[in-house]
Design a protein that fits this description.
- The chain has 210 residues and is mainly α.
- The chain is built from 10 helices and no strands.
């Protein structure tokens, strides 16, 4: 969400009022979720969480499992930003369970990727790697090249943190190759920066050893 956030919020509030007057519960949930996204960008995380919670309650009453999974994922992201990693992991796990019941591989792959990041931050590199590998396998089966590249890049960072430099560099180079082929310049630039940092660290290590 970019641009006139205040203006966007006013329009969403108008839309929400219309949804409520029409008794359009699904529309209410969708609008509340969009308002939540704007509030996140505005760093109003508590308000964003309340909007997502309201949306979740409506989706639960409608039995909309896919919507519930997506909303839980967004709520988990807010908890992670607020530093509540345990709470975030619980919500990601709830989202994953729903996605598994729906057979939604793409959603599950994204959730596993997010869960792996939480484990990585908590220092559980082995657990993070396992989840990244699961996510990678799903993305490969779906032909999701950009998702595969992003996960490879994250795996590369975990491998480097584990002291597996060659494997880490290989994973980052694979990610960069995919992103270059796709013309994803922004992501490619980030991975190039990671590789440059590794090169500098290796050079420094060699100089120190010499």
């Amino acid at each position: 969400v970019r641009g006139d956030l205040e203006g966007a919020m006013r329009l969403y509030q108008e839309s929400l009022a219309i949804d409520e007057s029409l008794g359009d519960r699904r529309g209410q949930a969708a609008t509340l979720a969009m308002m939540g996204q704007v509030l996140v960008v505005q760093s109003k995380l508590n308000e964003a969480m309340r909007h997502y919670q309201d949306a979740l309650a409506i989706l639960e009453s409608l039995g909309d499992l896919r919507g519930q999974a997506a909303t839980l994922h967004e709520m988990a992201g807010i908890l992670a930003v607020r530093g509540d990693l345990e709470g975030a992991m619980r919500l990601y796990q709830e989202s994953r369970a729903i996605l598994e019941s729906l057979g939604d591989l793409q959603g599950k792959a994204a959730t596993l990727h997010a869960m792996a990041y939480i484990l990585r931050v908590r220092g559980d590199l082995e657990g993070a790697m396992r989840l990244y590998q699961e996510s990678l396998a799903m993305k490969e089966s779906l032909g999701d090249l950009q998702g595969k590249a992003v996960t490879l890049a994250m795996m590369g960072q975990v491998l480097l943190a584990r002291g597996q430099r060659l494997e880490g560099i290989r994973a980052l180079r694979q990610a960069l190759e995919i992103l270059d082929q796709m013309g994803a310049q922004g992501d490619a630039a980030l991975v190039s920066l990671m590789l440059e940092r590794v090169r500098q660290e290796l050079e420094e290590a060699f100089r120190s050893a010499g």
